[in-house]
Amino acid sequence: DLTNANTVSVTGTTITVNAPSQSQWQYESGGWVYHMDVSAILVDGASSVTLQNNTVSIAKSGVYVSGSSMPAITVRNGASYVDVLDNTISASGAQYVYGVMMNDGVTHINIKRNSVTSTGELYVAGIDASTTNDTVVSGNTITATSTYVNVPMYDGDESLAYGIICDEGNYLTNNTRNKICSNTITISANVTYGIEMYRGVNNMICSNTITSNGHRAMGVSIAFTNYTNIVNNVIRTTKTGDDYQYFYEEITPSNNGIKFTNQSNHNLVQGNDVLTTSVGDSIVKSVNITNATENTIQDNYLWISNAVGSYSFGKTWYIYGTPVECT
Fold first, then answer.
1. 96, 100, 69, 97: which is closest to 82 by C-alpha?
2. Which of 5, 73, 151, 213 stands the most exposed, by the fewest C-beta atoms within 10 Å?
3. What φ, ψ does residue 120 adopt, rounded to 5°?
4. What does the pLDDT look like over 214-256, one tens digit per residue?
5. Is 325 exposed, middle or buried, given 0-12, 13-18 or 19+ CB atoms closer than 10 A?
6. Cα 278 from chain centre
């Protein structure tokens, strides 16, 4: 527990936590309150912390608890200048599984060169970089797998996997000046988001390799995000089945390589290599822009493989296996 710590290093250590899963939301004093009671490493309100060359794992023991959350590493509550480097990180067993979770307005965080594995039955995320500023997530190898991938577990729920998710948390705080670059992401679930950004400004998503497999599979998806560059990524999305239960998500699940929605304006998409494989899906698109304006899409290879041919950014090309350059 590194709550309010200052200038601390944890290196070369093995930390293994097996604990009962805990509900992340509890009803108190007339309202629902978020609690995070179980984490292998907690960096809360701390500054100048280094976590390097550690092996960190967390898994549930005992009965599965609905609504539970068990991050392996948590950085929160205004923590700043935190380096998470060269670690082997794994998390499993809760309803909401996170390898690394950041929230509550953290700044100047470096998450670099880690191996992150998240496995669970419902919602899994490799790295949650929510409400972050001036943060770098780079060089990580991320695997996120939701094991319940055929039939939804509960009404209104769905099997979800995120490689990296950047949420705003409280509808007030944007994600600003962050770099998500050179990560290798492999995800599998009913619904998959390689990288999702919600309410971001002036961010860079670059040089990532994303493999996204699901019944609704997406590579990079953004909503209410402006002045963000999505450049030089290699994205492969594959539709693996048809079963899908509707649930509310700000970015509606679909089969797309890159998706903009909900007033995501003034963004750049350049130099990406995107292949979307979605057999039998006649409306699949490499790039899907909905309710978004003044975005620049240039110098990309955008192509799909489906039952009728290759499709690229609004035009159908009846050529299999040939990338179409969009200039």
1. 100
2. 151
3. -165, 175
4. 999 999 999 999 999 999 999 999 998 876 776 778 899 999 9
5. exposed
6. 21
